Amino acid sequence: MRAHRGGDGGGVAGRPRIKDVAEYAGVSPKTVSNVINDYEHVSERTRAAVREAIDALGYRVNLAGRQLRRGRTGVITLAVPELDVAYFAELAKYVMAEADRRGRTVLLHRTGAVRERELAALHGFDAQFCDGVILSPLSLRPGDLATHDRRLPVVLLGERPAEGATDHVGIDNVRAAREAAEHLLSRGRRRIAVVGGAVRGRQGTDRLRTDGCRQALEAAGLGLDAALVVPVDAYHWRDGARAAAGLMGRREPPDALLCLNDHLALGALRALHEGGRAVPRDLDVVGFDDVEASRFSVPSLTTVAPDKEEIARTAVSLLLERIDDPEPGPPRDHVAGHRLRVRESSGGGPAG
Length: 352
Description:
Layout: H1 18-25, H2 29-36, H3 44-57, H4 63-69, E1 75-80, H5 86-101, E2 105-110, H6 115-122, E3 132-135, E4 154-157, E5 167-171, H7 173-186, E6 192-195, H8 205-219, E7 229-230, H9 237-248, E8 256-259, H10 262-274, E9 284-288, E10 302-306, H11 308-324, E11 333-336, E12 338-341
Parallel strand pairs: 1-2, 1-3, 3-4, 4-5, 5-11, 6-7, 6-8, 8-9, 9-10
Antiparallel strand pairs: 10-12
């Protein structure tokens, strides 16, 4: 075997180059590059041969040099509303793991659901600092996407503020909420309150999940009582506790709470316990997001579990494809999977 000189592009004595890996694997340098960048259209046999060559030769990608030659930073931004809401913290963990696997660094930005901060993220802050943005918007207006500089790749998480030329990843919130409500109906519950819901306004996550509950009730020959749709100031424990306490103080309290995130549901469980209500004997509680705390509450929490790993993996992949091939193309929508995890708070067993 011949001596290897230079790194990714040559220059450091003793280090193997892409050309050396290609010769060892019996493929072209372009194929080696495709495997390193995890492009899809490479056969598993070829991919295995290239990886074997990389391991055998001890090849290491010179990420900094490669990004500089391309005029890129190797940094992507993840902009989320809050990090003290567990869903976003867990999602960030998966995004950072996937980005690291793809040789990128993540700049984490908290927007606080403030429109000006979301706009700053949408426009890339300073283009010198990042190659693209993954943004979970809560406050953008429909016209904001129209002003987006198409040269900066953006992938949206959650719901689209409006139709636009940005890629998007999310779950089917209407279907997920409908399935959760159908589960409650199957247990004989009829007065389902939607904690954190909205009966009017733009098609945000709160409105879509409320619509899903409405669809389930109407299919069962019932209607959604607007008085049982309880908006909240924020999606934190205290807001769920406050909403649950208020609902239980009514003359006709609900027999189930569909809470639009797990923080609301966990806060509600605490308020119900303090108010002497037994869950699920007196009423059921269901949340959204399947955060880790939902498996350790007493009772354990029934919750809609979005596939956070799929969301993160897909968002990073779509963004890197736009970075590598910036030619405008039609926006892509990816609907990630979800499942209802039935636990003790609605008659199921302990969390597995």
